[in-house]
Amino acid sequence: MLIGVTSPTGQFPTAIGSAEPDRIRLLGHDLAADLMGKISFGELAFWLVAMRRPSGGELRVFEAVLVALADHGFTPTAIAARLTYLGAPESLQGAIAAGLLGGGSRYLGVTEDSAHFLADALAGLAGPLPETDEGWDAVALEAVKRVRAAGRLVPGLGHPVHKQGDPRTPVLIGIAEEEGLRGPHLRLFEAVGRVAPQVLGRELPLNGAGVCGAALADLGLPPEVLRGFALLARTAGLLGHIAEERRQPIADQVYRTVEDNTQYIEPEPP
Predict the structure, then answer these.
(1) So where are the chain's domains?
(2) pLDDT band at residue 9, thresholds of 50, 70 and 90?
(3) Does domain 54-73+102-248 have CATH number 3.30.300.30?
(4) Which pTM does this prediction carry?
(5) What does the pLDDT look like over 128-157, one tens digit per residue?
(6) Which neighbouring-strand residues pair with 108?
């Protein structure tokens, strides 16, 4: 909306929060009196999006997802943050933003992509949800075939490091099972892992980003915002990388290594 142009009612409603001279309201509560020191940041993040407080089990699954996605070593997102901080140490926000901008179809964005893939497959079911692994396998096989026929990759399959299995996947599924939250998205995702070799001709592990997307979808969170939770988690990891860069810098070495090994090639004539 243009600056200076009011809404038809002259008001701009929000159910998130507001600030007044003597208090801050957030989600219908007094921030200082009701929330600070009484709820975790994870609970607040869930509440802000879902507009309801999570149960204890939901919070455990949700925070396990945040932990799972916080860091994965020297990924391009971490390298981008460190290199940006090298060039502009006065701009912490720029370094973190640089890392977050790389959250897409190959890194972090898989969380959202997997949830969309699973939700679409579930929405296409004509009857009730399957009750057996065999039934889930049939749904998964159809979904995988449809994606591959369209020339697209199956989100949530494969990992460049964890080729024999992502250690996060069984742990998160186990936590969801313990809390009674191993719902249709997770069950379908597990089935995808079982049937994919029939279509792809090779074994690929279910990766951590994919299982996180399935788990978040089973909590009733909309797929359209799940990349945001992945970015929220990775923000903590990027801040850790920048703090370590201050203590033990490696960004200049990365830059010098590339610079020292640059091979200039004459462009081909038009």
Answers:
(1) 13-53, 54-73+102-248
(2) confident
(3) no
(4) 0.91
(5) 999 999 999 999 999 999 999 999 989 999
(6) 104
